[in-house]
Amino acid sequence: MxxxxxxxxxxxxxxxxxxxxxxxxxxxxLVADDERNIRRTxxxxxxxxxxxVLEAASGEETLALLDATTPxxxxxxxxxxxxxxSGLQVLEQLAARGGGRPSIPVILISGHxxxxxxxKATRLGAFDFFEKPLDxxxxxxxxxxxxxxxxxxxKLASLRARIRGEIIGESPAMAALLAHVAKVGRTRxxxxxxxxxGTGKELIARAIHESSDRRDAPFVKVNCAxxxxxxxxxxxxxxxxxxxxxxxxxxxxxxxVADGGTIFLDEIGDMSTSAQAKVLxxxxxxxxxxxxSNKVINxxxxxxxxxxxxxxxxxxxxxxxxxxxxxLAVVPIVVPPLRERTEDLELLCRHFIDEACRENGLAxxxxxxxxxxxxxxxxxxGNVRELRNVIERMVILSDSDLELDDVPAELRGAAAESDxxxxxxxxxxxxxxxxxxxxxxxxxxxxxxxRAFITQRLRELQWNVSKTxxxxxxxxxxxxxxxxxxxxxxxx
Length: 492
Description:
Number of domains: 3
Strand order of the largest sheet: 2-1-3-4-5
CATH topology of the largest domain: Rossmann fold
Strand content: 5-15%
């Protein structure tokens, strides 16, 4: 097809099709095609809908513009086949830069593309694929959707950055958790966050709220375990003046305070059965009544709940309502204990050391490798909360950097009990005499701690290598290599 012919076809498509909606493409689009008339036609169509349009006549120019343009391009519309670098080759480079997928939506167009090209484009992460002559409305709709996708991706990246500012960890377990949080946060679903005490369930609930469209509305936390059973209904649903002894004035409940936002029912496993029934009503109908009133109040509240207890067992024993359990656990999220993400220990220690130094007006301190190794061998029953308290104590009591001597004796003693390495690690961690075994190198010390820790975890899981690898956040093959390297074998 000639340049003018292609332009005529596109102009006809652009002129005959009805308008979608003027001004809906507020974004920066790069149109790349070696045919000038195609670029001109697409520019006219997209600018007519409010877009800012840049042009490139080759693949090489496309990459240069993508790298140099500020503010950055949000959507790329590019021809599949061009002299020099083709559109598919550009897409391939963008996918490689983005770790497998391009960082911006890429819409491919072609006058003579085959199935093979379409399949390759899909595999490389193309957002859409069109054949010439182009249909005006289809192009507009596709670009509009691509802009929305780019905006959603940008917000998600920003959210993950904000979440990571509070939730420390780069282990596979934490990466999976944060991805789950970001995904569920954009919905209206109720979430039940479970996990051991001290794992950071409230941080997860706040992150879900921050990732939702309710982020600018209230986030109201209720500790169900801290409120006496006789006051829980008044706290949650409010009361009228004179409803009970001491009710001197009307009071809004926390569900009303959270209207339009999120209420976080922490330790919901400790809530009384009568309060459970009223919470269930709110979840079912969005209606509540203050204590001492017959007036129905409507609220729009997203409910997040958390507990360290096994609610399923409480349901079986009759201590928790089954219907409420299923209403709350639409999306269950489990926060892993610290012992299952020991790869994050160093990051957490560094964060808490800096925090403690800053809050107490102390010079920045470092953590010695020997101290970190000893702490890695400890099971941390109190999880991140316990670690934070231990680190703050070490920072305050130490005279300079944090050495092995600064690790609390109870931690060193617990780690020593799990020593199976044959290097005298128990006395080394107890340090009653203040000295390590003669000739013990740092490498030997680390290997001994690692051997003891992995052996203990294998025993806890009945030597199930797959489950142990999963709990440690590493690949099964990697654990096998570790066991071989450290000489760990069942019965050994």
